Amino acid sequence: MTARKDEPESAEQATPVTLQLEEAGYRFRVDFGLPGAPPLLMDEPEPLGEGSGPNAPRLLVAAVVNCLSASLLFCLRKARLEVRGMRASGSAMFTRSEAGRLRVQGIRVRIEPEVVGGESGRLRRCLEIFEDYCVVTQSVRGGIDVDVEVATTSAEAA
């Protein structure tokens, strides 16, 4: 199977995302490295930030919901089922770790495709397999190895 233009072909290829702090608060401008795609502002909710954009947990939920929705839509279209619309939503449930740190415990997703007629066997088959093709969901479910490097630089005091 050949990779699409927007996805890496192998584990060695990267999907670049760059963040730049916008001000003294917690607002970051995110550049996805895609020509023509506008940057996204992220911010922490009050009282830490100003809530002027989504924070990381909201983007994680959005990534899971989007990936699942796109995977289901792909399957439905491949099965030649007419999809007139689709609405999806998701929410994160939080818990505290043993050290008292906030963690995403789970993500609930609801997808509502509007499928016209169609053969129920083909629809049933898509509902059985679409989750397995979602890169983000299956990665989150299996756990993600995160390699972190911190490179500090000194700044002059203003």
Task: Give a short summary of the structure.
This protein has helices spanning 56-78, 120-129, 135-142; strands at 18-21, 28-31, 40-42, 82-96, 102-116. With 158 residues, the chain is α+β, with helices and mostly antiparallel strands.
Describe the structure.
- The chain is an alpha+beta fold and about 160 residues long.
- It contains three helices and five strands, in the order βββαββαα.
- The protein has helices at about 55-80, 120-130, 135-140, and strands spanning about 20, 30, 40, 80-95, 100-115.
- The strands form two sheets. Strands 1-2-3 form a three-stranded antiparallel beta sheet, with no helix packed on it. A two-stranded antiparallel sheet has the order 4-5.
- A hairpin with a 5-residue loop joins strand 4 and strand 5.
- Helix 1 (about 55-80) crosses helix 3 (about 135-140).
- Element-level helix/strand string: EEEHEEHH
Structural class: alpha+beta
Radius of gyration: 19 Å
Enumerate the spans where pLDDT stays under 50 for 5 or more consecutive residues. none
Task: Summarize the biggest pleated sheet.
Answer: 3 strands, antiparallel
Strand order of the largest sheet: 1-2-3
Chart the SSEs and their pairings.
Layout: E1 18-21, E2 28-31, E3 40-42, H1 56-78, E4 82-96, E5 102-116, H2 120-129, H3 135-142
Helix pairs in contact: 1-3
